[in-house]
C-alpha cells in the first residue's frame, strides 16, 4: 500500500496527490472553567461576616434605642440587651461564612453557580423572614426581627456574590 512518502520521508513522486505532508491542526483549548482565587473569596467572606454581625448590632440598637421595642431582652436590659445580642451577631457572621462556603462549593462544582447561589440565599432569607411570625412575641418584635433578618440576608447575598465574581475575575456570573 502506497503511503505517499518515500523511504526518506519526502513526497513520493509516484503519488503527486500526497505531495504535502499532513498538516497539524491546532488543538482546541479545554473548556474554560473560571479560575478561582479562593483566598480572595474567603477574605470577602470574612469581611461579609463582620458586616452581617454589625448589621445585626445596628438593627438591634435601632429597634431597642430608637423605636423602644423590647427586642431580644426586656426593656430594662439597656440598649444592647443581653446575651441574645451576641447570639444574633454571631449567627449572622456564621451565616455569612456558611454562604461563602456554599459559593465556593457551587463555583467548583456546578454550571451557572451564582444563579444557584442566588436562589439558595434568597430562599433561606425568606425562611429567616417568615420564622419570627411563628413565635408568640408581640407583633412589633416579630416585625423587627423579620426586617433585621431580611437586611442581613440581602447583605450576605450581595456581598458574597460580589466576592465570588471578584474571585473568578468576573467570570462567575
Architecture overview:
With 173 residues, the protein is mainly α. It is built from 4 helices and no strands. α2 runs antiparallel to α3 and α2 (83-109) runs parallel beside α4. It is rod-shaped and about 105 Å long.
Overview in brief:
This protein is mostly helical and 173 residues long. It has four helices and no strands. It is 60% helix and 0% strand.
* Main beta-sheet strand count, sense and barrel state: none
| Tally of strands | 0
User: In percent terms, what proportion of residues is strand?
Assistant: under 5%
Q: How far apart, in Å, are the first and last alpha carbons?
A: 55 Å
Helix/strand order: HHHH
Radius of gyration: 29 Å
Number of helices: 4
Name the helicity range. 55-70%
| Helix/strand class | mainly alpha
What attributes characterize this protein structure?
60% helix; mainly alpha
List the topology elements:
Layout: H1 38-66, H2 83-109, H3 113-130, H4 139-167
Helix pairs in contact: 1-2, 1-4, 2-3, 2-4, 3-4
